Amino acid sequence: MKVFAREGGDYTIVISDDLLRPDRLRPNINWLPWGDEHYPKLVFFRNMLPAPDFRFAIQNAVAAGCTFDFTLQHLPDRDAIDAMGPCGKQVMGDYYPDAVWCDKSTFIAGGWKACIKGH
Questions:
Q1: Domain assignments of the chain as residue spans, ordered by start
Q2: Which of 19, 75, 84, 85 qualifies as a FRET site for 92, CA 20 to 30 Å off?
Q3: Where are the alpha helices (DSSP H) in 51-102?
Q4: Among 106, 109, 111, 103, which residue's Cα sits nearest to residue 1?
């Protein structure tokens, strides 16, 4: 299970291997099915630029060199992605999306806060 949650609680997106949206999810939680585990997948998180001078934009993280080699022919190495996270978070500040892997039992017991706390 993948849980994306803005620290201020603005949104939660759960991606799970359930075939249908789990009844246990509250209505304010967005859900995406992960699908068959036998096929490689990527999750793209789109960031929109609210104003050209917005200093916490993802574009500024890219300009600061917080990137990795990314082509759809070859998925980026997990270590490369993890290494660039702190760089992006430093540039984007509170606007950087926090994402963690979380097991179902932890999420069911404590919601996204339990998942972030355990990370």
A1: 1-44+97-119, 46-96
A2: 75
A3: 58-63, 78-92
A4: 103
Tokens of 40: 């490689």
Closest Cα to residue 103, out of 91, 115, 92? 115
DSSP 15-38: EES-SS--TTS-TTSEEEE---TT
Q: How far is CA 64 from the centre of its chain?
A: 20
Tell me the pLDDT tens digit for each residue of 62-117.
889 888 766 667 777 778 778 888 999 999 998 888 778 888 899 889 888 888 87
Q: How much is the pTM?
A: 0.66
State whether the Cα torsion 74-75-76-78 is positive or negative. Answer: negative
CA separation for the pair 68, 66 (Å, rounded): 7
